[in-house]
Write a structure and sequence with these properties.
The chain is an alpha/beta fold. It is globular.
Length: 306
């Protein structure tokens, strides 16, 4: 019987710097804090899905170095089953994350390192993990050919497919038709559709455009406003949750995607699954870090009850 969530994506070490603002070119700025921790959208989503209660496997590629060791330790601690190719001569990637002292908002530069070499062959090697899952998730931090192979394997096996097109990049037309759910944030939705996404109405238009491109359903995350669930038969705003003071928003999108995937894998109805994802995201922003900020299932349930 199919069970749980299989996620294809990258791990990188997040190097997070807090400061009042970003430096301008040629300037050195004193910061207020620094933290290193596990990151990478796919790996963050795997942690979020596992803490939300899912049985999770993660498909990726790592170097054989200190950052790679953090990845392996993270997945072990979270009970995530790795399907990982090792590239002994390539470095595991890293991300520079600027976090605003004032708002907790972020700006990121990510270098995927060894995971940037994830190939369709690496994904094929993990075919069993994808075919045995109830939900398959991928993003755009690794090459799109690898994402396509994962989506094709999942679709052919009747696995629910979730595509988080992040960071925004051109998506070949055939990919959308492989997606049961496409989950961009407002910036990514605008880049993919050419429609500015500043209002709920514009998000609906972008949702229509994503469906017209072939996606079965769209879920556009709208930051503090929540997420727009947009399908051929309904369009509804799922509101965000206020779980306390916002400390860092970098992992919020990944918290949403990972928790949503676990909820779908449990057979939750999509609007309830999106609400579950919004609650996870709402808690994640009250904590520093990306993967370390992901909430546990009882915390999500407590917020949903409150
Ligand atoms: O979505 C947040 C993630 O994007 C960070 O953890 C960083 O590693 C980048 O991949």
């Amino acid at each position: 019987m199919k069970q749980g969530v299989a996620i294809l994506g990258i791990f990188v070490a997040d190097l997070a710097f807090r400061a009042s603002r970003q430096p301008v070119m040629g300037e050195t700025l004193m910061g207020s804090g620094f933290k290193m921790g596990p990151g990478g959208k796919g790996s963050n989503q795997a942690v979020a899905a596992a803490r939300a209660g899912g049985k999770v496997s993660f498909i990726s590629r790592l170097g054989k170095d200190a950052f790679g060791d953090i990845a392996v330790a993270t997945w072990k601690a979270e009970g995530i089953a790795p399907h990982v190719a090792i590239a002994p001569d390539e470095p595991t990637g890293a991300a520079y994350i600027f976090v605003s002292d004032e708002t907790g908002e972020n700006a990121i530069i990510v270098v995927p390192g060894a995971a940037g070499g994830l190939s369709p062959r690496d994904v094929e090697a993990a075919r069993g993990a994808i075919e045995g899952a109830r939900v398959f998730v991928t993003q755009l931090e690794q090459p799109i050919d690898a994402a396509r192979t994962g989506l094709e394997i999942a679709r052919a096996a009747g696995v629910i497919t979730v595509f988080n097109p992040a960071p925004a990049a051109p998506v070949p037309a055939g990919i959308y038709a492989l997606c049961d759910w496409v989950i961009p944030n407002e910036t990514e939705a605008a880049a993919l559709t050419g429609i500015p996404v500043d209002t709920e109405e514009q998000a609906r238009k972008a949702g229509d455009a994503l469906l017209a491109k072939g996606a079965r359903n769209a879920l556009i995350t709208l930051g503090a406003r929540g997420a727009l669930l947009h399908t051929a038969t309904r369009s509804m705003l799922v509101p965000s949750f206020n779980a306390g003071k916002v400390v860092e928003t970098a992992g919020a999108g990944d918290a949403f995607v990972g928790a949503f995937a676990t909820a779908l894998a449990e057979g939750m109805e999509p609007a309830a699954a999106a609400r579950f994802g919004c609650a996870a995201a709402g808690i994640s922003v009250t904590r520093p870090g990306t993967a370390p900020a992901m909430p546990a299932r009882p915390e999500i349930e407590a917020l949903l009850r409150a």
